[in-house]
Amino acid sequence: MEKLTISKIEHTKIGIISLNSQKNLNALSKALIDEIIGILEDFKTKKITCVILKAEPNKHKVWSAGHDIKELPVSGRDPLGYYDQLETLLRAIQKFPAPVIASIHGSVWGGACDLIMTCDIVVGDLSSSFAITPVKIGIPYNASGISHFINRIGLNQAKEMFFTAKPIHSELALEWGIINRIVRDEELDNYVMDMALNITKHSPLSIEVIKEQFRILTNAYPISPEAFERIQGLRQKVYESEDYQEGINAFLEKRPPDFKGK
Ligand code: YXS
After folding, report:
1. In this structure, are residues 102 and 108 in contact, taking their beta carbons and an 8 Å threshold?
2. Which of 33, 69, 117, 168 to probe ligand 1 with, by most ligand atoms within 8 A of CB?
3. Count of domains forming the chain
4. Cβ–Cβ < 8 Å for 58, 107
5. Residue to probe by mutation, ligand 1, list 19, 24, 25, most atoms within 8 Å of CB
6. Within a domain: residue 47?
7. What is the model's pTM?
8. Could you tell me if residue 246 is inside a domain?
């Protein structure tokens, strides 16, 4: 089964990446992420000036189930290290020299929610929902990921998403700013294509430089070396905990986790 379908719209500078790994609900495995990053490199070579990131509909109505839980490292190793697959993908999206529009039909989970937050524009249909779920599994999310949420939806709403891990459905997602636009299911593809066509009419150099300024400014968090080391120490306590391993085991064994706080 094709994991991805890629297309370039003829006579335009629009590139489309469509996730299609049906069996594990487009879980962000290393293989899938490596393919996406390879396509982005190819799109860069082809001077694509707007990317659409979407997913083929599936019977579970899931856009992406997030990080492939089966690939999370065992206890004692940071699951979201700088060079790990999810973080590498998020940086590739941020550094791609043109806007990336996430087109969402269905539910978005965990690291995939961070992925769409990292995209430049998000358009959802009425079926779209968004959940960030590290607390369900016992994962110490990381500072850059948390900053994506604070930047996009503000402190209070980011805290509610992280602490409840509940899906935020399309109407509230629009109100909170998770999505830029909400459209009827049958209008999604055309709406996003029209937006992409509009973007590709404008100066790609100007857009590239403005996008990079957005990245620099939104990543500009002054933080002392001691604060950085404290964050790393706090996160290490979690990914070395029994709870971290219990969260992964519970998911794989299809049972509720029994967290002990240690
Ligand atoms: O049992 P089989 O072999 O058919 O496989 C099942 C699931 O195990 C598999 N699957 C996944 N495999 C790897 N990684 C995943 N994230 C993942 N999610 C699902 O897909 C097959 C069908 O799943 P099933 O039976 O549960 O489908 P469903 O329609 O009943 O439920 C769909 C979901 C998405 C609501 C449910 O699968 C689910 O809650 N998945 C986990 C969503 C999630 O919490 N993702 C976060 C992953 S960790 C992550 O992204 C970050 C590191 S963090 O945690 O920090 O946010």
Report:
1. no
2. 69
3. 1
4. no
5. 25
6. yes
7. 0.96
8. no
Residues of the chain with pLDDT under 70: 1-10
Instruction: Indicate the DSSP class of residue 167.
Output: P
Tell me the CA–centroid distance for residue 132 and ligand 1, in Å: 12
Active site residue 67: yes
Q: What is the CATH number of the domain that holds 61?
A: 3.90.226.10
In a domain, 237, yes or no: no
**Residue 244 is among the residues annotated as catalytic for this protein:** no
Residue 75 tokens read as 């206890």
Give per-residue pLDDT as tens, 158-195. 999 999 999 999 999 999 999 999 999 999 999 999 99
pLDDT at 7: 66
Ligand 1 midpoint to CA 223 (Å): 34
Identify the domain containing residue 160 by its residue range. Answer: 5-186
Q: Which residues of 84-96 are buried (b: 16+ CB within 10 A; e: fewer)?
A: bbbbebbebbbeb
The yes-or-no answer on residue 105 being catalytic is no
> Is 86 among the domain residues?
yes
Q: What is the 102 CA–ligand 1 centroid distance (Å)?
A: 20
